[in-house]
Specification:
homodimer; alpha/beta; 6-stranded mixed sheet; 12 helices; DNA-binding
Chain lengths: 340, 340
DNA sequence: TTAACCAGGTCAATCGTTTGCACTTTTTTT
DNA sequence: AAAAAAAGTGCAAACGATTGACCTGGTTAA
């Protein structure tokens, strides 16, 4: 089975040259003659030599590994985000070290520590729910590990971040619903504590106001994301004297629960009431009642953008030297409407 | 910003002892006096010293990193599997290096190479679709990197693998449907080339036969997983003189498409026809028409089992020494019925 | 008294690779 | 033909931590 793994030493010995010559030959150093280079490369290939990245990265203080931390990988949004991150990483010869926070700060810290101890070159993170602080990530500073925040970003300005503009997307969605002739647009928001809720609500208010209509808070409900919570919200909306003719759900899960409840009350989905949502799961196209319109945040693209930003930061890092004035990057992607 | 990262050397210098003393003090070596140990540990804490795993792993030829390769992370099944893997890894001080094959052998090779070059301690892999060979993983042997196959396992016996028994699960599902009084049970299978299709079909045939009924291949349809493919299958089943009173779909995606189509033909879901499926997505509980019964493969548990197996293999690996007779582990988990 | 022993350390090699510097040969320039 | 430049290599240190072998000074047993 496992014969000893070939090293640069082995090649040097067999060719009767020094290890430094081999090292330089393999990296195409100009001071090495073509003849020697060829001999070395040939033998390297014959032995299936592969540089030991552990040793190299140890020496160069680089790992070519990026840590990626998300709250929950089985949320479609994040798994797609990771895919985008991974694609760009691969293209650049980087690999991904992976961790989940399960929306717990405690776990998040733990994962961050693991990443630190593995000496990743950088960390891309989507903060755990309800967190917009990033103190527990300060430890990475000491190790000079850059951080790119992704989607769930801290509010502070002095960080690198990639996120999408839900505000504009929401305004657009309402504009579109108006164009379909809907005037009583209801909104099932998430818990008020979430930044994501505030963003959406602000967009909702702006969208409604822009049409010179007054905002009716009767039309704004709230859910804790449980099926019951959503059912209560829907039930109240449907029991209004003037029930809505369009309902925007916080996300696709809420949307599905909303539809389920509305169906049971005999509502004709997307006829009596148009259902809209924020796209975050991909099964919609398979379900019987997808939302007619969604605000899509393009998680894959966001992932790509985050990794590109990371690559950029890493390439500008003057190795080992103190950064005089780190420029923080801010990438706001547009959220767009998609129709089913 | 980044002051230099503390090393063992730094501690030694400040305490005027040798690096070896520091190293031993930190690892609680009996030869070091309590006094020295305490002094060292105290300073280490004060400086926020953290061992450089790159250096350690380089020296010890261990990385404490496990490579995990799955076809598609945004398939619920795999993201849950990864979560299970990650949980056990965390508990054991391991981290996960992550890669997707996108069901392409080419990509799979690429990822395997990346893992190899990162010198992971082991690889857990779910093979890309339609592959049950593992030749391209042989390269890992040369580096003595153990492999645990997960869910999509090769048919060869001399490998470590974890998978679930779909055959039994399918038989059980049919038994249950019979108990509900259903006698005309149809089955929408996947492409014949897939092992997963064969497993299910075998279970189906066994389940039907066990009730001393003859298997009617009219009741077995096939889909290529496209919405149209599934619609065609459903359409044909519904147009039979004796249409089915139960339909088992290959998976939840197929199930949703099937329901969508059946609805449009006026079928009362789960009344006229009971719908069953193989659980692989978690949104089912939110959808309006979940399958009444599913065969669940418990991906999270499978992930845990795979990682535990890996830990076991790693702990039995007599470091550096040639393994005389590697014992291959085989873990077949039971797939169980779940009801909605 | 002297060898034997022990506690508590230190030394130095090692892992695989990179890289600045020094050292030979050539080749070129004067 | 001598000096200078260029080309091609080798030496050895370095990265951070581990570890077997080797000191040192004191206590104990013979």
């Amino acid at each position: 089975m496992s014969v000893s793994i070939p090293t640069i030493k082995e090649i040097a010995k067999r060719l009767n040259v020094s290890v430094s010559t081999v090292s330089r030959a393999l990296s195409n150093h100009p001071r090495i003659s073509e003849k020697t280079k060829e001999a070395v490369k040939e033998l390297a290939k014959a032995l299936h030599y592969e540089p030991n990245s552990k040793a190299i990265f140890f020496k160069q203080k680089k790992s070519h590994v990026i840590g990626v931390i998300v709250p929950l990988i089985y949320e479609d949004f994040f798994s797609k985000g990771i895919s985008g991150i991974e694609a760009i990483a691969m293209d650049n010869g980087y690999t991904i070290l992976f961790g989940q926070s399960y929306d717990s700060i405690e776990k998040e810290k733990q994962v961050v520590d693991a990443m630190k101890s593995q000496r990743v070159d950088g960390v891309i993170i989507s903060l755990s729910k309800e967190t917009n602080k990033n103190d527990h990530l300060k430890v990475l500073d000491a190790y000079n590990i850059p951080i790119v925040y992704f989607d769930r970003v801290p509010s502070a300005a002095n960080v690198n971040k990639v996120y999408s503009n839900l505000f504009d997307g929401t305004v657009q969605m309402i504009e579109w619903l108006f164009k379909q002739g809907r005037k009583r647009i209801a909104f099932i928001n998430g818990p008020a504590a979430l930044i994501a809720s505030k963003e959406r609500l602000d967009g909702y208010i702006e969208g409604i106001s822009r049409r010179k209509l007054k905002v009716d808070m009767q039309m704004v409900e709230q859910t804790d994301f449980s099926e019951n919570g959503t059912h209560r919200a829907i039930a109240r909306l449907l029991s209004l004297k003037k029930p809505p003719d369009a309902i925007i759900s916080f996300n696709d899960y809420v949307h599905m629960d909303a539809v389920k409840c509305a169906l049971s009350k005999g509502i004709k989905i997307n006829e009596d009431i148009l259902f809209a949502s924020y796209a975050n799961i991909s099964v919609n196209k398979h379900t019987a009642y997808p939302p007619v319109v969604s605000v899509d945040q393009f998680p894959y693209k966001q992932g790509e953008a985050a990794m590109k930003m990371m690559m950029d930061i890493l390439s500008h890092k003057t190795d080992g030297v103190e950064q005089p004035d780190p420029d923080f990057q801010n990438c706001e992607l547009e959220a767009l409407l998609v129709f089913n």
